[in-house]
Amino acid sequence: MSQSHPGSSEVSRLELIAQGQDFAPVVHDSVYQEEKVLEIKNFNLWYGDKQALFNINMPIPRGQVTALVGPSGCGKSTLLRCVNRMNDLIDTVRIHGDIYLNDQSICDPGVDVIELRKRMGMVFQKPNPFPMSIFENVVYPLRIDGERSRSVLEGVCEHSLKGAAIWSEVKDRLHESGLSLSGGQQQRLCIARAIASEPEVLLLDEPCSALDPIATGKIEDLIRELRGEYSILIVTHNMQQASRISDYTAFMYLGRLVEYGPTVDMFTKPKLSETNAYVTGRFG
Ligand SMILES: Nc1ncnc2c1ncn2[C@@H]1O[C@H](COP(=O)(O)OP(=O)(O)OP(=O)(O)O)[C@@H](O)[C@H]1O
């Protein structure tokens, strides 16, 4: 383990986890009162022989922002990637358990993964626009679905760029390369591409980690605006960011869920001292 540890008064449960002992996470009652869009159930994952996720049980509320936080290597990105079956691309991965989208299994071998990924827009740490025009970047998901109507494509392009709060900055240069934009603009372009296929869930894997504070502020404003229309699951290292933009926060440690509750409670009156130590920066 590379992370530093909290003081001895906070260490007990985390030590038990580090020793591989079973641990019952603390999930606040209000999590269960929300309507759920996703449900992660008894979910375990191995990379080869190494177990990276241990019996994760988490409902994810619909139309809200849920932040996954925890020290480096605790499994946040692994869990996020399971939600759109990106881990299928890694040969050594083995899972046990399931994840449900609107009560339907996404792990079932019969699931059409391409269709699933259309329902789960994903945005990565580093903006990854395609080497094509801004317009073509946004309408890419429709193009691969065979959409040819210019008016449909133009309508979706404008709607998605407006939704990603970048329309006014690019509306006169739609045919310039997406790579000509600044890093923050590229990330909003990627969000526009993610919402062009009208997903139900947006998965954001540290979407601001490569951005400066001003670009970060714009993405955070955007996440707040998209809340409600989309259910958002975001991985972040930045505790201030989690407290600013999320409705719910899940604290993970060494592949296990430790505490999960409303963000305001997780940051002001968490039930576990370990959570308090982490969110206040005393370890991690
Ligand atoms: N492709 C892979 N093959 C083998 N092990 C992996 C792979 N990806 C991740 N792991 C391991 O799984 C564990 C969880 O990694 P993961 O990247 O999900 O954590 P994280 O919490 O997102 O970390 P970070 O905050 O540093 O991005 C780590 O021990 C990591 O080394």
Strand and helix map with partners:
Layout (H helix, E strand, L loop, with lengths): L11 H7 L7 E2 L1 H5 L2 E12 L2 E12 L3 E5 L6 H8 L9 E9 L2 E2 L7 H7 E4 L10 H11 L5 H14 L3 H4 L12 H14 L4 E5 L7 H14 L4 E5 L3 H7 L2 E6 L2 E7 H6 L4 H7 L5
Parallel strand pairs: 1-11, 4-9, 4-10, 7-8, 8-9
Antiparallel strand pairs: 2-3, 2-5, 5-6, 10-11
Helix pairs in contact: 5-6, 5-8, 6-8, 8-9
The chain binds adenosine-5'-triphosphate.
Keywords: ATP-binding, Cell inner membrane, Cell membrane, Membrane, Nucleotide-binding, Phosphate transport, Translocase, Transport
Pfam families: ABC_tran (PF00005)
Protein name: Phosphate ABC transporter ATP-binding protein
- Strand-pairing-aware structural class: alpha/beta
Question: What sort of overall outline do the alpha carbons produce when their principal axes are compared?
Answer: globular
Low-confidence stretches: none
CATH topology: Rossmann fold
What labels describe this entry?
284 residues; alpha/beta; Rossmann fold; seven-stranded mixed sheet; four-stranded antiparallel sheet; globular; binds adenosine-5'-triphosphate
